Amino acid sequence: MWKFIIILTSVLLFGSCNQPETTPETTPESVNNNINSLKAGNSRFFMNEPLNWEPLSPSENKEMAKNSIEPSTIILSCSDMVILPAIILDQKIESLYQIRTVGNFIGKYEMGSIEYALQKFECKTLLILGHKNCGAISYFVETLDQRKKGEIISNFDHIDTLINYFSGEETFDKLSPQDKMNVSNIVEKNIYYQANFLKKRDGQIKKLIDHHQVKIYGGVFDPQTRKIDFFDL
C-alpha cells in the first residue's frame, strides 16, 4: 500500500513539473481599473484639477531611480508636442510605459518596445492615442493624389514607407473618396488599423491578446476641448 502511494505521489509530482506554464487570464477588474484611471485622469485634466502635475524633486527622482518601476499601462501616442500622455491623462510618470512615434504608427521598433513592456512589466492595458489635426495624417491626406501618381513627396523614407503601407490597407481602400480626405476620420481609422496590425501579426503580442491577457483601447485627444474620446478595440 505504501509502495503504491509513493509511486503515485512521484507520478503526480513529475507530471506537475512538466506541465507547460500558463499565465492567468487578465481579470476584468484589473483592466477596468487601468482604463478607468486613465479616463478619470483626463477628466481631471479637462476640469483643470490635476493630482499628478507636481514636478518631482531631486530626492524623489533619485528615489524613483533606486526603486523598480512597474508601469501598468502602455501608451502608444503620437509624438506631436500637443499630446503629452502623463499630463493629459493626469497620471504618475512611473505608471505609464510611454512610446511616442509620428502618427502613432507601429513599425518594427515600436513592436519591440511593446513586446518589452509586456514581458518586463506584464502590462495589462495598451492605449493607442491619436489626436485631432494630426500632422502626419494631414501629410498623408494632402499628398494622397501625388502618391497615386507615384511622385516622390519627401526624403522622409521611413514615414513615406509607413504611410504608403497604410494607404494600401484594405480598410482604407474601402473608404469613400470624401472619407479619404477627412483628416479626423483617418485619425480614428489609423488607430483601428494599428490595433488590427497587433492582433493579426503572429508573435507574443497576438498570443497575449488572444488569451485575454492584454486589452487594447483607442483614444483621440482634442487639444481644443482637452478631452479624450476613448473606445474599445
CATH fold topology: Beta-carbonic Anhydrase, Chain A
Shape, principal axes of CA atoms: globular
Helix content: 40-55%
Compute the number of structural domains.
1
Order of helices and strands: HHHEHEHEHHHHHHHEE
Q: Number of DSSP strands?
A: 5
Mean pLDDT: 80
For the record, the CATH architecture stands as 3-Layer(aba) Sandwich
* Major sheet: arrangement of strands: 2-1-3-4-5
Q: What's the story with the biggest beta sheet? A: 5 strands, mixed
The low-pLDDT segments are 1-24
Q: Which structural class should the secondary elements be placed in?
A: alpha/beta
How would you summarize what this structure contains?
The chain is of the alpha/beta class and 233 residues long. The protein has a single domain (26-52, 59-232), classed as 3-Layer(aba) Sandwich (Beta-carbonic Anhydrase, Chain A). Helices cover 51% and strands 14% of the residues.
Can you offer a commentary on this structure?
With 233 residues, the chain is of the alpha/beta class. It is 51% helix and 14% strand. It has twelve helices and five strands. It has one domain (26-52, 59-232): Carbonic anhydrase (Beta-carbonic Anhydrase, Chain A), CATH 3.40.1050.10. It has a five-stranded mixed beta sheet, sandwiched between helices.
Architecture blueprint of SSEs:
Layout: H1 2-17, H2 28-46, H3 58-66, E1 73-78, H4 85-88, E2 96-101, H5 108-121, E3 125-131, H6 135-142, H7 144-148, H8 157-167, H9 170-173, H10 177-180, H11 183-200, H12 204-210, E4 215-222, E5 227-232
Parallel strand pairs: 1-2, 1-3, 3-4
Antiparallel strand pairs: 4-5
